[in-house]
Design goal:
Blueprint lengths: L4 E6 L6 H15 L7 E6 L5 H7 L6 E4 L16 H6 L4 E4 L2 H5 L5 H13 L3 E6 L3 H5 L3 H12 L11 E5 L14 H19 L8 E4 L7 H5 L6 E4 L6 H15 L1
Parallel strand pairs: 1-2, 1-8, 2-3, 3-4, 4-5, 5-6, 6-7, 7-8
Helix pairs in contact: 1-2, 1-10, 7-8
The chain binds 1,3-dihydroxyacetonephosphate (13P).
């Protein structure tokens, strides 16, 4: 039985302010009876919704995260949002290096590293996403790719800083409308690589870092994935954007796997 399971959703460039507030309210209402000793629940909506989402959240029930963050407190970075701005609107968590940031918007491991360090220094729970492309999987270098993303992305992070660090494994080929979900066995194999790398980097502290799986998680595969020993949570897109559907996945997982 796992001590705590993580459930989160990234709403990408969908939901407006009104949609997000309704979603947060419904999700809190639907899940309020579930003990937060058992689960951590988070929603990562778009920047413009953060103020309202944070005002709507019940801190006992839900964390709100940002989808990205600039790595300086201020400066000549047109279009970027700084850690101070995210703090100002009450944001708990920052996601760094989502597959779409890396592969659609062209971010590099070096940039992710600057953002991770900045987010941790500003005391945000920091969710670093890693994942290999279809091509890298085909070449048989998934493990190597993930290890490089972790070692570069977490360069300079100290053991003390890992208390607020989370990692998500999101294979690029598994994400979104054209994605096909990783099998639970494959996801487990890569989660073992991630956990070994985190231990290598941070010793025993590294074993405490939650590692979540994301990429076409749906009502059919959620329970199977959640039962894998090295999967500590599910990071969901499309299947969680309706609060009732998300609530059902959470309850199925809790009922079936513990
Ligand atoms: P999907 O669940 O829609 O594949 O998206 C996953 C994701 O990108 C979460 O960050």
């Amino acid at each position: 039985m796992k001590k705590r399971f993580y459930f989160g959703t990234n709403t990408k460039m969908y939901k407006t302010i009104k949609d997000t507030v309704e979603f947060v309210k419904s999700l809190q209402e639907a899940t309020k009876d579930i003990s937060r000793e058992k689960i951590t629940l988070f929603v990562i909506p778009s920047y413009t919704t953060l103020k309202d989402a944070n005002e709507t959240k019940d801190e006992e029930l839900l964390m709100i995260g940002a989808q990205n963050m600039g790595w300086e407190e201020q400066g000549q970075f047109t279009g970027e949002i700084s850690p101070l701005m995210l703090q100002e609107v009450g944001t708990d968590l920052v996601m760094i290096g989502h597959s779409e940031r890396r592969h659609v918007l062209g971010e590099t491991d070096e940039e992710e590293n600057k953002k991770v360090l900045c987010a941790l220094r500003h005391d945000f729970t920091t969710l670093l996403c890693v994942g290999e492309t279809e091509e890298e999987k085909e070449y048989g270098i998934s493990a190597e790719t993930i290890r490089i993303q972790l070692k570069k992305g977490l360069y300079g992070v100290t053991k003390e800083m890992t208390k607020k660090l989370w990692v998500a494994y999101e294979p690029v080929w598994a994400i979104g409308v054209n994605g096909k979900p990783a099998t639970k066995e494959y996801a487990e194999e890569i989660h073992i690589v991630i956990k070994e790398t985190l231990k290598e980097l941070f010793g025993e502290e590294g074993t405490e870092i939650p590692v979540l799986y994301g990429g076409s998680v749906n009502p059919e595969n959620a329970v199977g994935l959640s039962k894998m020993e090295h999967i500590d949570g599910l990071f969901i897109g499309r299947s969680a954007w309706n609060a009732d559907n998300f609530n059902k996945i959470i309850r199925d997982v809790l009922q079936e796997s513990r």
